């Protein structure tokens, strides 16, 4: 009798808890030695409910880890020039160690110009062109948080990427493109798919490692997944639904991230880890690096 395979779940909640605990220990050590806790400035433009929730969640996690947060809530009418001025001010403020501009900022704002106003040494969300270039060249710098969290999860589950076929569905600047670059740096053979990709199902079916970053609920189905593949679902939609059809995907994949409890918690964990690293670099470079 043939048995249906059930993929092992990659527990992002547990890994994030351990990662945050290490960041909290380092934050406490920085505070003890310098008298100042690491500080993350969060900048929110407008009152999009999802963005408000994300920023609140990030601030709350920061506080629990001993990281101060400074919240700037700007009106939806904020112009590009005003936002750039705010971010430039935070970049110069020695009391702020990391800066997070919550995406999206609204269609009337030049988001790229705003991101580029963040000083690279405070770019703990990994959104500037310089951070992207450093990551792509394998040079020191901050990585985009969701891709960074995905790589930590793959490492936690000892996924050997060298020589593997990795397919990334999605090519956004904050997710699809950088995760592909990180997989390439680990010697995976990377294919990007996007809205103009033809015969997506056949490309997906070749993936040893599949990253779904499409932004469409239950978009990728189990029937197209290679048996035993490692499946990373970066998507998040109301009702705890990802970009993968989890019920059918679990019957084919070897390892899979759940939604929630997979990629999401790791994104915040990397943000905190990078904020602590930034604070250490700026205030106490002698303390051993946060290995989390
Ligand atoms: P995005 O900017 O909207 O990008 C979506 C990508 O999917 C684009 O590259 C688009 O192609 C591609 N795409 C759209 N329709 C497609 C189709 N029919 N076939 C193939 N590709 C298609 O989204 P994002 O910001 O990268 O986010 C993606 C998902 O990840 C969302 O569900 C979001 O909620 C989630 N997310 C989660 C976290 C987290 O912390 N867990 C963080 C960030 C994002 P084109 O480039 O051709 O338009």
| CATH homology-level superfamily of the largest domain | NAD(P)-binding Rossmann-like Domain
Please identify the structural class as seen in this structure. Answer: alpha/beta
Q: How are helices and strands ordered from N to C?
A: EHEHEHEHHHEHEHEEHEH
How much of the sequence lies in strands comes to 5-15%
Number of domains: 2
Average pLDDT figure: 95
State the share of residues found in helices, binned by percent.
40-55%
| Order of the strands making up the biggest sheet | 1-9-8-7-5-6
Stretches with pLDDT under 50, minimum 5 residues: none
- If you compute it from the alpha carbons, what radius of gyration comes out, rounded to the nearest whole angstrom? 19 Å
Choose one word for the global shape: globular
User: What's the architecture of the largest domain, going by CATH?
Assistant: 3-Layer(aba) Sandwich
**Main sheet makeup:** 6 strands, parallel
Bound molecules: NADP nicotinamide-adenine-dinucleotide phosphate
CATH class of the largest domain: Alpha Beta
């Amino acid at each position: 009798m043939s048995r249906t395979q059930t993929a092992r779940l990659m527990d992002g909640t547990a890994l994030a808890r351990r990662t945050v605990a290490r960041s909290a220990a380092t934050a406490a050590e920085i505070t003890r030695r310098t008298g100042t806790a690491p500080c993350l400035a969060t900048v929110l433009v407008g009152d999009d409910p999802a963005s408000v929730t994300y920023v609140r969640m990030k601030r709350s996690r920061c506080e629990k880890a001993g990281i101060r947060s400074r919240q700037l809530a700007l009106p939806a009418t904020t112009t590009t020039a005003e936002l750039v001025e705010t971010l430039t001010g935070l970049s110069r403020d020695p009391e702020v160690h990391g800066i997070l501009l919550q995406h999206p900022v609204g269609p009337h704002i030049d988001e790229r110009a705003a991101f580029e106003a963040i000083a690279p040494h405070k770019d703990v969300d990994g959104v500037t062109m310089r951070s992207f270039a450093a990551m792509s060249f394998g040079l020191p710098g901050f990585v985009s948080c969701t891709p960074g969290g995905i790589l930590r999860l793959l490492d936690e589950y000892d996924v050997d990427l060298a020589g593997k076929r990795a397919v990334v569905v999605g090519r956004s600047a904050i997710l699809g493109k950088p995760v592909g670059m990180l997989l390439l740096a680990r010697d995976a053979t990377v294919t990007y798919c996007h809205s103009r990709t033809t015969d997506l199902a056949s490309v997906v079916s070749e993936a040893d490692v599949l990253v779904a970053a499409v932004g469409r609920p239950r978009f990728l189905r189990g029937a197209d997944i290679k048996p035993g593949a490692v499946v990373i679902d970066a998507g998040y939609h109301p009702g705890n639904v990802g970009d993968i059809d989890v019920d059918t995907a679990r019957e084919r994949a070897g390892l899979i991230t759940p939604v929630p409890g997979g990629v999401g918690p790791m994104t915040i964990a990397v943000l905190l880890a990078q904020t602590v690293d930034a604070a250490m670099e700026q205030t106490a470079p002698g303390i051993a690096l946060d290995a989390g």
